[in-house]
Amino acid sequence: MSKAETILERMNQKRPILGDGGYLLELERRGWVDSGSGREKVGTGKGSGQFTPEVAIEHPDALRELHREFLKAGSEVLQALTFFGTREKLNRAGYGQQTEAINAAAVRIAREVAGDNAHVAGSVSRTQLFEREGRSAAGHVRELLNEQVLLLKNAGVDFLIMETFFHLEEMLIGLDCARSTGLPIVATMTFRPKLTECSDGHSPAECAKAMVGAGAHAVGANCEQEPDRMLGILREMRNSVSVPIAAQPAAFGTTDAIPCFTRLPEFPDGMEAIQLPRSSFERFGSVAVSEGIQFVGGCCGCNAAYIRAAAQGLTASNSNSR
Questions:
Q1: pLDDT of residue 42
Q2: For a Cys-Cys bond, which of 17, 56, 58, 299 suits 105, CB 3.0-4.6 Å?
Q3: Which helix (H) or strand (E) is 40 found in, with range?
């Protein structure tokens, strides 16, 4: 990969760019991150326990190793572990005073591993305040997201991934903050509890159009659904906008009745029972070109084995399209 090639140039090539997988759940499985299930209800719409990224300063070698695994598996993008890295969320976990240090360390570690071989993205997620407090939290959300995107820009990320936003209104606030950095922006909504609309009632097509209108350079969906179930969302977005489409599905199986893995009773401490085979990501990689998906990665439950499988699918698809 050319160092001078931007993420936007890369996404507009014929073969999709391959992202990485999920960090917090994988590190929780390895014993480095606390799910918070013993202290806070999860999967209820009231917040995802702890799952905060202080591992970047407390156990940097564990984070560094996971980045290496994704890079070796074929990832062309490494996301700095800054998901749930806003000051209020970190404060709830007891790390608010280390907000700057955690975000800076996460970017530094990703950059060290990426070298000249991968782009580095800053991950910016929902604050959880819309779920907890409703729309009255909008002003506070803006302050929190504005602070974090500036921290990430100053730390030197190549672009921003705005991900796992349940409410379009919160995503648009985040995009307004992110746009001020001048960095390329990939924006992915998460659809829960329905596949047909986000939490504040907007269809995938409406979300895609609004995100592009707010400055996103690529849009898509991430988390909650497995690849096959996410495809319908992605197709609707693809048909409504002309920018690149990004996908980061989860590696957990869901059901027609409950199409969101965080609403299943297995979340968060029994998810091994709903883990998908890696072949699901190989299939997803193989159909990405024909489906018009230009950024293929993974979210929760997706480790390096799934990314390697997706890389194999992309390679096969690219060979067949020649």
A1: 55
A2: 56
A3: none
CA distances from 102 to 66, 78, 86, 152, 275 (A): 17, 16, 10, 11, 30
Q: Tell me the three state secondary structure of residue 236.
A: helix
Count the helices and strands in the chain (H runs, E runs). 13, 8
For every residue of 255-272, DSSP letters joined together read -SS---GGGSTTTTT-GG
Distance of CA 122 to the CA centre of its chain: 10
- What domains can you pick out in the chain, each with its CATH number? 7-320 (3.20.20.330)
What's the Cα-to-Cα distance from 167 to each of 49, 88, 211, 292, rounded to whole Å? 19, 18, 12, 25
Q: What are phi and psi of 77, to 5 degrees?
A: -135, 135
52, two tokens: 């905060």
What would the pLDDT profile of 243-272 be if each residue is shown by its tens digit? 999 999 999 999 999 999 999 999 988 999
Decide: 263 and 43 in contact? Cβ < 8 Å: yes
Is the sign of the CA dihedral 132, 155, 100, 138 positive or negative?
negative
Structure tokens at 71: 């890079």
Query: Do residues 51 and 63 touch, judged by C-beta distance below 8 A?
Result: no
- Rounded CA-CA distance 310/322 in Å is 19
Per-residue confidence band for 3, with pLDDT thresholds at 50, 70 and 90: very low
pLDDT recorded at residue 1:
47
Task: Write out pLDDT tens, residues 5-49.
Answer: 799 999 988 789 999 999 999 999 999 999 887 766 655 545 566
pLDDT at 38: 75
CB 213 within 8 A of CB 237: no
